[in-house]
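INFO  loader      accepted 1 record
INFO  loader      residues=495
INFO  predictor   begin
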Amino acid sequence: MKTYQHWINGAHVAPSSGQWLDTLDPYHGTAWARIARGNAQDAQRAVAAAHDAMYKGPWSSMTASERGKVLRRIGDVLAESRNAQHLAEIESRDNGKILAEMHGQLKYLPEHWYYYAGLADKVEGTVIPVDKADMLAMTLREPVGVVAALTAWNSPLAFFALKCAPALAAGCAVVLKPSEFASASSLEFAALTKEAGVPDGVINVVTGLGLEIGSPLVEHPDVGKVTFTGSDTTGAKVYEAAARGMKRVAMELGGKSPNIVFEDADLDQACVGAVAGIFGAAGQMCTAGSRLLVQNSIRQAFTERLLDMARKLKMGDPMSADTEIGPIATPPQYEKVLHYIDVAKSDGARCILGGGPATGPGLKGGMFVEPTIFTDVTNRMRIAQEEVFGPVLSIIGFDSEEDAVNIGNDVIYGLAAGVWTGDIGRAVRMSKALRAGMVWVNTYRAYSFMVPIGGRKHSGLGRESGIESIHEYLETKSVMISTASAAPAHAFLQR
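INFO  predictor   done
INFO  writer      dumping tokens
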């Protein structure tokens, strides 16, 4: 069984506790590796390494252009076919994401690093035409401090790029704490960054349980910024802990995204988008289109079309090229998904596809859930209000554009939304009316490293990707310099 240590200050480091956690292969249902069970002492060591690298080491003396070159080399290392193949296989084995999706992700992820490599030396301050005579006023943009990045189990390498690339471009050093359920790919990638010339201590990865090592990271006085991806429940606890230290916080949390189909849409495209939006990654996506709102005039016909497509989805080994749905990533999540299916049935929703564990040839490990579709769903049911994070779709009918907006917005979340229509005016109106951080029109799950994404309401704070993301890791400093040969004494008494 492979053993993974922490990655601290450019080296593999054993846990100070001497304890380890098994990490599960969700397809086979057996432990395939073990990770370090970190504690507060490990967190202290990692933060100290990051702090020294940022304020005393070579990272502090590099120009922004030099930092950008390091980020570009990280992208180059990630783009090497042998590295990309290895990392894709590791993550697929660790969290059950299908290998075909991982291959696509690994082809695209280098672009994140290249993008922020280019932005590193584009961070500019300003000179202000201040209202004081004989005074030069300007602003500087400086790194916010050591960043604690806490990531989720569904896309570890993507979260690594989303959080660390802009943080490093801004001049910060990072301590990453991946989910204890899927840490292996982050640790493997962190070690590869040394090949790219990342100075020791700039990127650190520590593993373990949230309370044992995540909390000490969030609460550490030398951490200036906390960025978190996960559930809104855990996010609230992280937010509270960070507030006690007056730390900057960014969070990408849960979602209950409406995917809205109007009668004038291209129904073939909309059907593909609905299936991909909920059954891709076995529904384990914050942006999953888990509420399918369909105009009542086409609801029955569209539902039949959807059923026909969903029945053909192939479940199986995530390492197989033809697999379309893999297993649920963790035992607790598997139980949660099945629980919500039972809740939906008891609340009166009608199950027209799936509705339980998936078994059969090629479905090992006991952690597969059938693609499940419910109709006769009202928006007040728990299945329509609470995040399931699995391959479970609720179909809700609506009559008018106003109905669609009201239903779409009637949840505590506001991460993403989809609109399918042939009317450009409606597309614009819906995009404005839906309270979500990202609205897709006639597509779903389309991402770009250039386009910011983030949540409203319980779906989070701040933005990831795009130019906005680098500003999440910068502070503004104001500087005023007297150019007068001698300043009058009373000038220093003015406020």
